[in-house]
Amino acid sequence: MAIIEVNNLTKEYQLGHLTSLKETCLNGLRRLTFQPVQERERFKALDNVNFHIEEGEVVGIIGHNGAGKSTLLKHLANISKPTKGHIIVRGSVAPLIEVGAGVNPELTGRENIFLNAAILGIPKKIIKQKLDEIIEFSELEEFIDTPVKRYSSGMQVKLGFSIATSMEADILIVDEVLAVGDLAFQRKCFDKMEDLIKRQGKTVLLVSHNIRQIQRLCHRVILMNQGKLEINGMPQSVCDIFYEQSDEKIATNMSGNKKIGISTSGEVNLENIFFTNAAGGRINYLQFNEDCAINFEINVKHEITDITAGFGFHTTDFLYLTTHNSEQQLSIPVLPTGKHILTCNINKLPILPGVYSIRFGITAGKSASTALYGENLKHLQILGKIPITIRDGFFALEASWSHAKIDTFSHEK
User: How far apart are CA 315 and CA 210, in angstroms?
Assistant: First the structure.
């Protein structure tokens, strides 16, 4: 039996709007005479959403801003009530929806621990038992008896996260709270979440714009779009679709200005990037583990010398995967004005199927000054079937396994 059931969940809001004095008076008369009032159409933050979550499952919820993710979590945490439909939750819920909510700046950190715990429904007895653990995790031992108004914003969210994760519950609802504090504390938060998921087997709903975290932590991912559940499936496939949608938005935003993302000295411009297969034919997609080439069409405005070209793959959230430059492979002492094509041939493309972007640059002269550089220049999809020996990651290794039995007698000898 599912621990969470969401059935035909719909949430509507009446959007505010200004009306003239005349229209306000007419609406008043209509109400008095029981006539329909002219109102703005109601906004559907959630539109007939349906899904079930099993006990111990970790489900990610992703989507663009305004997709309905946080609204959905607030209904699951019983913070908001649906307009239509219903939710069944079999178990206690710990909502980490707004870390630090309810913090009183006039109270000390210690006093705020008890205040926040009361807001989250944690019994005072339990907080007393866990007080030292909460303070230690927050890294605020030195400041715990100082008024919170003297805390930085990072210190406040550290305190809030430490309190929220101390709550014992069957279901943990998390909304964008892993990116709190400095990098070291973010690592602690992430480790804490992994402990709750893997060791304690909690049921977790996680909303985050950090898609890498979603892919790593979740068993299943739900993609929301304009209040509707668009896709419900495996993390890799759903996240790839979300990346494609993001790429389309990025491409649309960039279409009005082709120079966005490119810096140039004025000596050379990038005109086009295109892909070719082993036979030299142009292709729209690259194939995993197949030979291919990436071609950069440039227009040299002023003659440049001693050039080195380089390109690399990166994820759509700018995680650099690899870089390859022409140094020691291609010698171009002088590049005259006019159009040229620089080609990089790739043997057995090792990057696993997914959605990626390309960066490209050119340096010139003895000092190797930058003549052209740009990131996120072209979005591409790598297709292909992944071998069963490969699981997660970005690259396929040229590797093999072997086995040998250790001779105990020879080893001791």
Answer: 12
**Of 248, 278, 306, which marks where a domain is finished?**
248
Q: Are residues 353 and 295 in the same domain?
A: yes
Contact between 372 and 269 under an 8 Å Cβ cutoff? The reply is: yes
What distance in Å separates the CA atoms of residue 278 and residue 347, rounded to the nearest whole number? 9
Which H or E run contains 264? Answer: strand 262-264
Number of domains the chain is built from: 2
- Structure-block tokens of residue 106: 């006039």
Q: Each residue of 208-226: pLDDT tens digit?
A: 887 878 888 889 999 999 9
Q: What is the CATH number of the domain that holds 271?
A: 2.70.50.60
pTM: 0.68
> What pLDDT does residue 247 have?
67
The per-residue pLDDT of the chain, averaged, comes to 84
Q: Answer yes or no: do 236 and 266 share one domain.
A: no
CB proximity list for 360: less than 8 A, separation 6 or greater: 270, 273, 296, 309, 310, 311, 312, 372, 373, 374, 377
Rounded alpha-carbon distances, angstroms, from residue 25 to 18, 32, 33, 40: 13, 11, 13, 16
pLDDT reported for residue 404: 92
* Claim to verify: residue 187 and residue 39 sit in the same structural domain: yes
